[in-house]
Amino acid sequence: MRDRGWWVTVALGGALTVMAGAFGAHALADSLTPRLMAAFETGVRYQAWHLLAMLGVLAWRAARPLAGQRLALGLWLAGMALFSGSLYALALSGLRALGAITPLGGLLLIGGWLALAVCVLRAPSGGSDPG
Hints:
By secondary structure, the protein is mainly alpha-helical. Helices cover 77% and strands 0% of the residues. The protein has one domain.
């Protein structure tokens, strides 16, 4: 199976996203300030959206592997780790200094989307577009 490691990573990331969301909703809801709770929820939301994007790229890659797809996947994975991870750590610890890491993760997430755009623009034409 092509990209088995990526598929496993996304599957485990999905499980982690559900666990983080449930943990936030049930275990943290009464113990965090509204601002820290919002930060935690933002981490969960961005992680979920980028895992869905990774699933889409993996499905696309299974049908048509192109240079740049793995770069987008890698940037999104690193971006989620830094962006969502720093928001989780910030919410759980209250250490504001961890918030300095979040923008770096955001830049990696943006970089993944830009890498995907370049991948599409550089892809050879697959024939005529029926619609």
